[in-house]
UniProtKB/TrEMBL annotation:
This is SAM-dependent methyltransferase. Keywords: Methyltransferase, Transferase. InterPro entries: SAM-dependent_MTases_sf, SAM_dep_MeTrfase_SAV2177_type. Gene3D superfamilies: Vaccinia Virus protein VP39. Pfam families: Methyltransf_19. GO terms for molecular function: methyltransferase activity. The keyword Transferase applies. It comes from the Bacteria. GO terms for biological process: methylation. It comes from Streptomyces coryli.
Length: 261
């Protein structure tokens, strides 16, 4: 199952591309980004915080944690520091499967990845773990007998409570062996501005649920959280000095990485 490309309505992948400064978007996506900016002018900074977090998490997973297989769920349009580039810089043999419901990701992703036989892009709905895990590209590239890094970066907040996000996370983690890791970043309910943003997301996009740090931490149930746990994006293993006092937008998303025992 995938979604149609409809230029008259904003899509998550294209709207994210707008706030990251990309060119793969339509007027409806840019108008939606302007709605978000009217609520939180620094929304573009938040998108970049998330993108940099993805880079740090993948560097950790491919480096220190030693993983060489990645399932990037809700991968988004290719931009800077894509998962395969970061992971294969650590270990050129790393295999990566990108999964996205939006066919525009496949169209652009294939062009970027054409030269790389260890990376695949599939159009699939991650709410159907069997379809993702049994897809021929996933089966070809990912050996589920060995640890897998499962990425849900900037994604679970686009699942409504009644779509059983916890059950979906559990289904992926049940399908991979001990030593596998889960990385999540998620919109965080840190007060009235977060709820105002949530309203804008729900009104114009239809998804975008801000959950508390406790709710986000709950997604890692049964797994061993890696230090520093589930924290605002800039606090998760910063590259340089620890961040100073956090701004509001620094705290609008939280992230964590955990290991399956
Ligand atoms: N993971 C990337 C990152 O953090 O930089 C991209 C995040 S982007 C905000 C979320 C992506 O998830 C979009 O490209 C969207 O199309 C995709 N997505 C949303 N719902 C999905 C679903 N049910 N199955 C697969 N992909 C989905």
């Amino acid at each position: 199952m995938s979604q149609e490309i409809d230029p008259s309505r904003p899509s998550i992948a294209r709207a994210y591309d707008v706030v990251l400064g990309g060119k793969d978007n339509y007027a409806a996506d840019r108008a939606f980004a302007d709605q978000l900016r009217a609520t939180v002018p620094q929304i573009d900074d938040l998108a970049w915080l998330n993108r940099r977090l993805l880079g740090r998490a993948v560097r950790y997973l491919a480096g220190e944690a030693g993983l060489d297989q990645f399932l990037d769920l809700g991968a988004g349009l290719p931009t800077m520091e894509n998962t395969h580039q970061v992971a294969q810089a650590q270990n050129p043999d790393t295999r990566v499967v990108y999964v996205d419901i939006d066919p525009i990701v496949l169209a652009h992703g294939q062009a970027l990845l054409a030269e790389n036989g260890r990376t695949g892009v599939i159009t699939a709905d991650l709410r159907d773990p069997t379809a993702v895990l049994e897809h021929p590209t996933t089966r070809e590239l990912i050996d589920r007998g060995r640890p897998v890094a499962v990425l849900l970066i900037g994604l679970l907040h686009h699942l409504h409570d009644d779509e059983n996000p916890q059950g979906i996370v559990d289904a992926y983690m049940d399908a991979v062996p001990a030593g596998s890791h889960l990385a999540i970043s998620h919109f965080c309910d840190v007060g009235p501005e977060a709820r105002e943003l949530q309203e804008t997301f729900l009104t114009f996009l239809g998804t975008g649920r801000f959950r508390t740090i406790e709710e986000i931490t709950g997604y890692f149930r049964g797994l061993e959280l890696i230090e520093p746990g589930v924290v605002p994006l800039p606090v998760w293993r910063p590259d340089g000095l620890p961040p100073g006092e956090l701004t509001l937008w620094d705290r609008l998303m939280a992230a964590g990485v955990a290991r399956k025992r």
